[in-house]
Amino acid sequence: MRAVFRLGFVSVYLSAPMLDGFATGASFTILTVQAKYLLGLKIPRHQGYGTVVVTWINIFANIHKTNVCDLITSAICITVLDRLKIPLPTELVVVGGATLASHFGNLNHHYGTSVSGHIPTGFIPPQVPSFSLMPRVALDKNVFSPSFAFTVSLSEMFAKKNGYTVRPNQEMFAIGCCNIIPSFFHCFTTSAALAKTMVKDSTGCQTQVSSLISALVILLVLLFFAPFFHALQKCVLACIIIVSLRGALRKFKDVPAKWRASRNDAVVWLITMSATALISVELGLLVGISFSLICIIYKTQNPRVSLLGRAGDSDLYEDMEEYQNLVPPSRVRVFRFQAPLYYANKDTFLKTLYKAVGVTPFLEMTSRRKAEKKAKKISMTQAQANGDTNNGDVVVALVQRQLDFHTIILDCSAIPFLDSTGLVAFQGLLKEFAEIGVRVVLACCNTSLIDTLQKGQLFGKGDKDMSKMLFHTVHHAILYANIQVGLGLLVKECDLKTELFQTNFIAIDHSAMPLQHDPSFTLSGCCGCSPTWTCILNTCLLQNTHLKPHHQFETLL
User: Which residues make Cβ contacts (< 8 Å) with residue 81, sequence separation at least 6?
Assistant: First the structure.
């Protein structure tokens, strides 16, 4: 059913650190289960959680009962499997040699070694499954979810090792077929087997042909050869499995490198490995996936934020905490938020922005109202005493705190998307800062972000304010912000009407250059004042010339 609905996309949540940790933890669990066979101990297999802990406790409690013959056989088999470098299937050589040695040496009779014993042959006649059992097992069908995740995780692990890709939907369809058809033959449910998969990988199997050969061999064993493996020691099979696990167990030495590269990935690896080894394989996989998702959510809820500064005379702006010799723009704050803006991190976005610029708008407004009320009360008292009715307004104007910046530029280059909550946060931000006389503009937005902002009418109806609020680069936004303030000061100084000026023009900030007044640069009706820190390039502004919008800036030096 899951294959029909194409639910294989869930495999994308199986991260590489989680898969590595899961493989290592599962390998350690298998090693623990097989350890008793290496020593020839007869310990009941623990079922449930804590298999590793309980099994090792039982092993050490019964270590004095170790079968010396099994121990010696295990040492020989592991040495041969690890050291023998011949162009032959080493596992087959070991199984054949150990079977002959055990049979002719009669090791089970003389030394009490554990052997495979009787292996039944033949097939059970096929039978239609009992559909009356369906209601009783309906709830148990959910066990397929961790089974599928387990299978895909193994597939991804070996695909990464051997250089091929995995199609989760195809894997899901294959698992479904492997569980439907064998149900007519009284077979157990099918899933991936880590130990057997590692054994096949260690023997060099690469394609489905190996599975066909394995099936034929098993068929021959079930029909004809099963009695010949009666004398095969269990410790020999355990040695083959344990040696095949060495690749996964060697990942322990990669932990320091993982920690140096990414502490988050290292923690995911450790948590998944520990849960898989100490609790259970199935629950360990669930813990690994859940913890990986929690880490992703945490990273988006607590992203990196920074104030940007300018690199020399270039138009590049970077984090002032990460790079040296960066100069913050004069009276402008450039804020970068490095995460998608959505409902879960909206509050984080606002809090970090307020902290970075040093101003909380609603607190600033409250403070100003209190100051105005107090100052007005004092000034009115003094005015009444002096007989001056206008002094109160002057004092109130003087108590207003002047901020050290007039514009906030939001660098949206690291914001891939935002939802409706993020859009509302943007709208509220613009309104709050406008109340205290601070302009907020956006820069470096991707097309998806712009589309969302337009649909939310952030730029007004018909996007009429888009050219005033949206810029392709941070540098253009800074130029626009400074020239806006410069125009306001110049108009006020010259007593010109603000209707003569347009908001879309080209300007260059000359604040770092020697002040030189160009006598040819005059404004009709101007009082002769000199531009103190801003140079207006378009003198045709007073002639009602149509100027270029912000996205058509040309570099004029």
Answer: 90, 91, 94, 239, 240, 243
| Range in 121-125, 243-247, 352-356, 548-552 with the lowest mean pLDDT | 548-552
Backbone angles phi, psi at 408, to 5 degrees: -115, 125
Token output for 169: 């939907």
Pure H helices in 410-465: 420-435, 447-455
Residue 61: other Cβ atoms inside 10 A: 11
In the chain, domain spans:
8-296, 307-359+403-552
Tokens of 545: 């010339």
Instruction: Give the class (CATH, top level) of 307-359+403-552.
Output: alpha beta
Q: In terms of C-beta density within 10 A (0-12 exposed, 13-18 middle, 19 or more buried), how is residue 120 classed?
A: exposed
| 412-426 pLDDT tens trace | 999 999 999 999 999
Q: Check if the beta carbon of residue 368 is closer than 8 Å to that of residue 438.
A: no
Which residues on neighbouring strands pair with residue 311, listed in sequence order?
Answer: 326
The three-class DSSP label of residue 337 is strand
pLDDT on residue 475: 92
Residue 307 near residue 335, CB atoms below 8 Å: yes
Instruction: List pLDDT tens digits, range 426-485.
Output: 999 999 999 888 999 999 999 999 999 999 888 888 888 888 889 999 999 999 888 877
Integer Cα distance of 239 and 218 in angstroms: 20
Give start and end residues of each alpha helix (H) in 138-233: 144-162, 168-180, 194-202, 208-220
Q: Which of 347, 468, 338, 356 is nearest to 412 (CA)?
A: 338
SS3 state of residue 162? helix
Cα-only R_g, the chain: 38
Question: Parallel, antiparallel, or unpaired: how do β-strands 326-327 and 317-319 relate?
Answer: unpaired
φ, ψ of residue 507 to 5 degrees: the values are -145, 160
Residue 477 β-bridge partners = none
Cα→Cα distances 472→194, 441, 508, Å: 52, 11, 16
Rounded CA gap, 224 and 240, in Å? 23
| CA nearest to 20, candidates 252, 199, 205 | 252
Q: How many CA atoms does the CB half-sphere of 171 hold within 13 Å? A: 24
